Amino acid sequence: MTTVGHIPWLSLITFLPLIGAVVLLVLPRQGRIPWYWALLVTSVTFIISLPLFFNWQMGEAGYQFVERHPWAPGLGLNYILGVDGVSLFLVLLTTFLAPLVILSSWNSITDRVLTYLFMMLALETGMLGVFLSLDLVLFYLFWEATLIPMYFIIGIWGGPRRVYAAVKFFIYTMTGSTLMLVAILVLYRAAGTFDLTAIVGHVQLAPGLQRWLFLAFALAFAIKVPLFPFHTWLPDAHVEAPTAGSVILAGILLKMGTYGYVRFALPLFPDAATNMAELFIVLAVIGILYGGLVALRQRDFKSLVAYSSVAHLGFVMLGIFVMTPQGMSGAVLQMINHGLSTGALFLLVGMIYERRHTRLLSDFGGVWAAMPVYGTFLLIAILSSAGLPGLNGFVGEFSILVGTFRTHQWAAVFAALGVIVAAWYLLHAFREVMQGPLDKPENKRLTDLTPREVAILVPIVAMFLIIGLFPNIFFDRINPTVLDIQQYMAQQQTVAALMGR
Hints:
The chain is mainly alpha-helical. It has 21 helices and two strands. It has a domain at 276-501. Strand 1 (64-72) and strand 2 form a beta hairpin.
């Protein structure tokens, strides 16, 4: 267990944004004061999350910085937070993106500013709590806590069909969450505790019970990912959400689903997860190809990026369920890569929409001549998302493909075709927007990126290069935990075979 002095580091990181949201309510509302305060709170949260990285105990597979306190002992509830190689970079991704999305909203959100900033800060606390909770009920409470702020962010500050998109997002997510809550209560009855660390490796569940509980957890996580065919809420939510909402949704909220599989579904129900792995591999491959082909048909730039998430997260699901060390490590890294690459693309789509008030690819053309700085960032983000060697996307996808090929050659071949399709639709979009003649009068008047917008994009591009060129900085922290999970799954399969399950 790693500590930093006697400071409850994880609690501080988790609840500082919520404290900032409450303070926001009593601050003067005039001018930019609320914006500066929200930017300060999210920036400080990122800074105080960095010791998790720099004080990390290398080679350790277990949880670090653990905090454990009785909460409601009579009900079996405990307040338990911890971070390992799977959740470390998801926490850092959350705190990294939060100040950037505040900056991205600086001029675009002009209505109910205080409410908007309150929702963004409260949402950050919910997301961090999901990645750090080691008590099942605490995890569920944070999971549900993210639903309400995002519902309002889409429903109040979204596009013309924002209410429909927000309600659809709420209903889909709530349905999965309800089933997961029932499964948590059944699991408590069988295990006698909500403590994840006390259940995994210590409580043996009957095969039939495992199957049903796994399905309940898996459905909740599949909707959140979203895994094909549970993806239909995602394009509506992305297209109607404000730019910052799309960045948070793609960058972090979707990762709650993939994280849920690695942290909860696989370790809690290893027999059921292994027996159903083939189904999830097939659905992941379908999602990769389906998402890419549908993205290729989109004429709305934001909708194209939204469908690309279905394809990219199909890669993550594939890496998780092939259950090889390379595949799972690549999946964890690809969660981070997708958050950065797709987050950057949504930011760039939002920046040009603020200038042109359209997202139709046919309304652009030749924009590079008017916005060369914008074009440079867009090209880098597209190459990152397409998996160009030297950038972040390549490392994760290559690791997933290597891990997949070891056990499921057919899936690796079809997934590799998905890489080609991704390059096709992404480069097609770049050509439509940036290349060709600058022959539309509206495009000739476009202004290039402001210093604020450049300041938002530079840190993300820097991360593209750091991950792409120095991946071991990340794999050295991810691999021990992933290897521990993979070995545990293999051990449970051996035990099941010996017992004839």
